[in-house]
Amino acid sequence: MAKFLVQKSGPLNGEVVISGSKNAVLPIMAATLLTEEKSIIKDVPALRDVDVMCDLLKSLGAEVNKKLDENTVEVVPSGELKFEAPFDLVKMMRASILVLGALLLRTGRALIHLPGGCAIGERPIELHLKGLKALGAEIDPAQLDKGIVDAKAGKLKGSTIYLDFPSVGATEVIIMAACRAEGTTILENAAQEPEIVDLANFLNKMGAKIKGAGTDTVKIEGVEKLHGVEHHVIPDRIEAGTFMVSAAITRGRILVKNMLPDHLKAVIAKLRECGVVVEVTDEGVIVDGSVNKIVSTDVKTLPYPGFPTDMQSPFMALLTVADGPSIVIETVFENRFMHVAEFNRMGANIKTEGKAAIIPGGKQLKGAPVVATDLRAGAAVVLAGLVAEGTTEVSQIYHIDRGYENFVEKLKNLGANILRIDD
Ligand code: UD1
After folding, report:
1. 118 catalytic, yes or no?
2. How far is 300 from 198, CA to CA, in rounded Å?
3. Nearest CA to ligand 1 atom 12
4. Would the N or C end of the chain have less CB density within 10 A of its end CB?
5. Which atom, in ligand 1's list, is nearest to the CA of 94?
6. How far is the CA of 120 from the centre of ligand 1 (A)?
7. CATH of domain 22-232
């Protein structure tokens, strides 16, 4: 199995350029199916999840071309599309369900075998389905009991939909379905993540009429037809946040280029509370962990604009070494403390109680064999490894490959002592 070997590295210094956003590009790629015309997406990160989405679009009948350069994807969904998403792709990536709305609009049917719960929780999709039903789709209840979404629709019709929780995926699927439905859809308690704004910008360029993306109420006036466009994906705020923490934890100084600080207000605020100097300049964001003592702070994850759940584990790595105790409360996913056992193997001595993790802080971590239990937890144990005595051996790194482009190279450029060993 491929693994990373991470050694204590001293302060990371230098510049890093942030790649395009994984969570923005995946729904945008799904949305390319909403027209028969060619779309060109730029600043696409070279990631395993993107490869899976390319394979999914191909399996549905679209032509997908990645030859132009490694960060550009061209999708031509001009032929007749298939309505069934292959299970072997869906089980590799839950975001495959993002094609639900587009398939319904293009083929009148969407058949997707749902994967089971994943490490960080059950991740149900009842909100996606509630929205599609409100727009007029029929979902076979007997199939759903077997874990299969079999949705059929003639013409979708606009509706008013309230989400019980601002689910990112449900908001994206409903926006995509509504933009070619008949009439107006009002989506209330919508998720407000920047990736939703990027999707709406992409769809509006295609000819959709979406207003309010990025607020809790999105209004979508259905249009007959959408057309192909070219689009640059926004920078990945979670990758940016991870590199900001790498400067803080190693007491280094990094210029983070191609990041949008407005997307990371909560993370920047928490880093500053810990004593990290964060300065926004024209060139990028300077993150300096060398100026002050790094002290503890409490963190509670929330839907955007709150502190992102995807930054919870990387930030916890910092809190294990910060001076003083911290409490981290995870409110978005019900089981997102798998990394605690890994940090504890390194001597962090964290205790969990329901949604809370209590971190004593002030530890000198020790290298150990650890597991990347999910994508962000994988990055988090690498960060911990950078300040741990000895060698940290990280296995199951395919999780990290899902979401961090050139992670090892970028860290090495900053002075990290990290080595990838492939099978
Ligand atoms: C997206 C992100 C993921 C991030 C998450 C929360 C992508 C590809 N992934 O995932 O990186 O961690 O947002 O910011 O963009 N829920 C329900 N019922 C539903 C849908 C969701 O109860 O029908 C719950 C989930 O179980 C979870 C919470 O809502 O506890 C958040 O899920 P959601 O916002 O849907 O996350 P994803 O879109 O799956």
Report:
1. yes
2. 25
3. 310
4. C
5. 39
6. 10
7. 3.65.10.10
